[in-house]
Design the sequence.
């Protein structure tokens, strides 16, 4: 599976089997996390075999079951783009996980924050977590807004690369599926702006990664 297929096949999965993340899959996932941390300065961590973080009323209400593994998106409070960076690199890891045969779900609300086992320094905070493991299902397609409502380029003026990026942006996960972003073209690059809504900056980073990974053109946040 390549990254474009991973973008299409990724859906939020909330029910997991008890299979452990081991062997080559684990090694590749950890390698990707380490590379993301080196590049970004974030402190993203994989926590495995810990059922407690998703054993709360809120998580059961959110229909989560069997979540024994999660990725904690952690970084310095001093970074003014911490949420956006967390979204960007978290989505890179999510798509790598998809290519490794794993399933995921971004979770900013319905998990036990006080039970999260991440190692968090005094100057750091947990942005959110991502449930990860072998899903009992593959999830489903989310409803999406019209492409024309999320970008400032008309069909006739849209280069092929921009359309490819936009289609991947539409498939990106966003908090409560809000899709509060707007993408425009700027020469050979794209620019993305977050709207107002919960976790809109986190969404911005996620969508930006999907766009760039699909079409290979930079998408700058403004
Ligand atoms: C930043 C962020 C936070 C999210 N928080 C939660 C959450 O707290 N609980 C939950 O069940 N799903 C959560 N989700 C998953 C979204 O509901 C889901 O991504 C969206 O409905 C689109 O569906 P899809 O991921 O299957 O494409 C979150 C997603 C994002 C991107």
Sequence:
């Amino acid at each position: 599976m390549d990254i474009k297929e991973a973008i299409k096949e990724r859906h939020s999965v909330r029910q997991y089997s008890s299979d452990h993340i081991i062997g080559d899959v684990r090694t590749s996932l950890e390698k990707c996390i380490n590379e993301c941390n080196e590049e970004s300065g974030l402190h993203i961590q994989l926590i495995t075999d810990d059922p407690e973080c998703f054993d709360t009323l809120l998580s059961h209400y959110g229909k989560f079951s069997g979540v024994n593994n999660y990725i904690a998106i952690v970084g310095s409070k001093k970074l003014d783009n911490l949420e956006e960076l967390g979204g960007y690199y978290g989505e890179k890891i999510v798509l790598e996980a998809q290519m490794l045969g794993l399933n995921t779900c971004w979770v900013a609300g319905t998990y036990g924050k006080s039970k999260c086992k991440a190692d968090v320094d005094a100057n750091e905070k947990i942005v959110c977590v991502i449930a990860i493991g072998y899903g009992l299902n593959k999830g489903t397609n989310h409803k999406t807004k019209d492409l024309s409502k999320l970008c400032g380029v008309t069909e006739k003026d849209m280069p092929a690369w921009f359309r490819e990026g936009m289609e991947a942006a539409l498939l990106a996960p966003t908090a409560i599926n809000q899709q509060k972003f707007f993408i425009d073209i700027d020469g050979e690059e794209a620019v993305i702006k977050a709207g107002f809504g919960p976790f809109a900056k986190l969404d911005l980073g996620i969508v930006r990664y999907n766009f760039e990974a699909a079409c290979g053109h930079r998408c700058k946040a403004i």
